[in-house]
Amino acid sequence: MIFIFSALSTQYSALSINTQHLTLIMSYAHRITGKKKIKLKNIDPDDDGGLTREQTEAKTAKLCAELTELQTLLYAAGDQSVLIVLQGRDTSGKDGTIRVVMGPLNSLGCNVASFKVPTERELAHDFLWRVHQQTPGKGEITIFNRSHYEDVLVVRVHNFAPKPVWKARYNHINNFEKLLVDANTIVLKFYLHISKKEQEERLLEREQDTTKAWKLSVGDWKERELWDDYTDAYEDAINKCSTKDAPWFVVPANKKWFRNLAVAQAIVDALKPYKKEWLKKLDGMGAQELVAIQEFRQQKKEK
Ligand code: AMP
Ligand code: MG
Question: Is the shortest distance between the CB of 115 and ligand 1 below 6 Å?
Answer without folding.
Answer: yes
